[in-house]
Specification:
This protein is of the alpha+beta class and 83 residues long. Helices cover 63% and strands 12% of the residues. Helix 1 crosses helix 2. The protein is elongated and about 50 Å long. The N and C termini lie far apart (44 Å).
């Protein structure tokens, strides 16, 4: 039974990591851009965070992308690009 618990905990960690990564990105956007977005607007694929934003918000993100990425990396995520 102990082995089964450890095995299932792996999946819990994997699933939890995606939600936590989204929360970190959401927090960084709030701090740098003062932008409130929901977790559903964030999708992470192979180290790239794809954000569902309006054109105006995308422009702001483009201007401050470096700052957001630095903050995300300081929090321990390996996100290479924001789109």
């Amino acid at each position: 039974m102990n082995n089964l618990g450890r095995y299932l905990k792996r999946f819990q960690i994997i699933i939890g990591d995606k939600a936590e990564e989204k929360r970190v990105i959401q927090s960084a956007l709030k701090i740098v851009l003062n932008l409130n977005i929901s977790l559903e607007q964030i999708r992470i694929e192979k180290g790239v965070a794809v954000l569902n934003l309006s054109p105006l918000e995308r422009g702001e993100l483009f201007m401050h992308k470096k700052d957001v990425l630095e903050l995300v990396k300081q929090k321990g995520l390996n996100i290479m690009e924001l789109r």
